[in-house]
Amino acid sequence: MMHTIKFALTFVFQILLVYALSNRVAIADEVSDLSSYQVQEITSGNYVHVGNFPPQDTHNHGDVANIGFIVGSKCVAVIDTGSSIQVGSLLKDAIHKVTSLPICVVVITHVHPDHLLGLNAFAEDLTVTVYGHHRLPKQIRKRSKYYLEMLQRDLAVEDIGSHAIDPSRITTVDSFLTIDLGDRVIEIQAWDYAHTDHDVTVTDVSTGTFWAGDLVFSKHVPILDSNARQYDQVLKKLQSLDVKHYVVGHGPLDRPWRDLVTEQRRYLDVLMSGVRTAIDTGVSLMDAVNTVGWDEHDRWLNFELYHRRNVTTTYTDLEWED
Question: I need a surface site. Which of 115, 143, 224, 228 has the fewest CB within 10 A?
């Protein structure tokens, strides 16, 4: 048992390494030139910058997440800020090209650096309210040192101190919050354990546009930084939503919403079923990571980067299942 725990801890540590594996990209995308940074209006007032596929590295400048903004008649809400102040500033410049209205809200969907570390491009303006899950400040304090070191190592950012996030800057959301941007109401919802233990989503009520953060992936293998059982329950709720338009954390936005969620739930079912069988038949964690769910390999991008960690996280949870 101690050997299993030591092995599990090694893989759990990889939760913090998932965005640092810059030399093992599983998709041959050409890197984007940040000088040609673009946003697209996917529906009225909702603008998205579609990032490259993870992992982040110096070639893609860490520009790997889908981030963007919603424009009301009074002000603008930003949804995630990218992996660095450089990327966040590019998003900010894109906003100013679309509208002269002030930015009043920034929503951080979760702590992962490709969604968070551009925050200080916006947070220096104290008129901007920054929202996040009530567990987000704790996660920022817990992970900040490593994320800043990773920023320097993998993206060659020299001034990492300027990227340090003040957890007290976060206005926390415990369950559900509505904000009026002027003739456009957005809803921020805090979820329980899913992709992480602190995900929030944003809905633009007038257009039915759902900003999912990393609760849902498109083509990219789901990444589990929490609990597979509870993640599936959250996805079950998302599957039933009447989503007219959506933004996921990574991947293209051109497939039917329910198809994405159904596909992701199927992956989690394969993961949990395979892990339960492995545990019941005495397969060790060391062997399970190389056998459970590998029939999924060709269905997902970056599978080999993240699937073993998903198996590890699920095994160490289900090992104690009643």
Answer: 143
Q: How far is CA 225 from the centre of its chain?
A: 10
Three-state SS letters, the chain: CHHHHHHHHHHHHHHHHCCCCCCCCCCCCCCCCHHHCCCEEEECCEEEECCCCCCCCCCCCCCCCCEEEEECCCCEEEECCCCCHHHHHHHHHHHHHHCCCCEEEEECCCCCHHHHCCCHHHHCCCCCEEEEECCHHHHHHHHHHHHHHHHHHHHCCCCHHHHCCCHHHEEEECCEEEEECCCCEEEEEECCCCCCCCCEEEEECCCCEEEEEEEEECCECCCCCCCHHHHHHHHHHHHCCCCCEEEEEECCCCCCHHHHHHHHHHHHHHHHHHHHHHHHCCCCHHHHCCCCCHHHHHHCECHHHHHHHHHHHHHHHHCCCC
- By DSSP bridging, strand 245-250 and strand 209-217 are parallel
CATH number for the domain formed by residue range(s) 29-255: 3.60.15.10
CA-CA distance, 214 to 177, in Å (whole number)? 19
Reported pTM: 0.89
| Cα within 13 Å of Cα(288), Cβ side | 30
pLDDT in tens, 55-106: 888 888 899 999 999 999 999 999 999 999 999 999 999 999 999 999 999 9
- CA-based angle 304:25:67, to the nearest 5? 105
Classify residue 186 as exposed, middle or buried by CB count within 10 Å of its CB (0-12, 13-18, 19+): buried
